[in-house]
Design a protein that fits this description.
Blueprint: E1 2-5, H1 11-22, H2 32-37, H3 39-42, E2 54-59, E3 66-73, E4 91-96, H4 105-119, E5 124-130, H5 135-141, E6 145-150, E7 153-159
Antiparallel strand pairs: 1-2, 2-3, 3-4, 5-7, 6-7
């Protein structure tokens, strides 16, 4: 795969990747329209990138077609994300196309996003992961630790 910095022009695929992250079980739990109609989900993509926000896109090197993305948002206390810790702690979202899962794409995206967070001067980064999502092992392997719980999901934090 080829990694590159995500841009505003990648927003359609970031929306697809958000849907992949929400539908991590493989069962379609939400449609794209339902996701964008839900303010708790839509705020992960609407208006991205705002100042201080960043992302990485993975592409199939043969076709240039996006196969995964990871990006970070700085959400305010009055509109927090599921993995919200503080307004100065970016929350990451990561989604990989099913045919590309288990091939190191998520790991490469996460590592690149962590490096970008450091480059942007952030000291911490957070996320939310639902119970049963095997991505939790990737997050733990990269130093994320649980710091809270919302419903059936852990909020995890990584010091940078």
């Amino acid at each position: 795969m080829h990694l590159r910095t995500a841009t505003e022009e990648d927003l359609p695929f970031l929306t697809d990747a958000l849907l992949l992250a929400y539908d991590w079980t493989g069962a379609e739990r939400f449609s794209r329209e339902e996701l964008l109609a839900d303010p708790n989900a839509a705020h992960y993509v609407v208006g991205w990138p705002a100042p201080g926000e960043f992302g990485v896109l993975a592409e199939d090197p043969a076709t240039g077609v996006p196969v995964g993305a990871a990006w970070a948002r700085l959400l305010p206390a009055d509109d927090p994300g599921y993995g919200y810790v503080a307004p100065d702690v970016p929350e990451l979202t990561l989604g990989v196309v099913p045919d590309w899962r288990g091939r190191g794409v998520g790991k490469a995206l996460l590592d690149a996003l962590l490096a970008a967070a450091v480059e942007h001067g952030h000291r911490r980064i957070s996320l939310s992961v639902e119970d049963g999502n095997r991505a939790v092992e990737l997050y733990r392997s990269r130093g994320f630790t649980p710091v809270g719980r919302v419903g059936g999901a852990d909020t995890m934090l990584r010091e940078l």
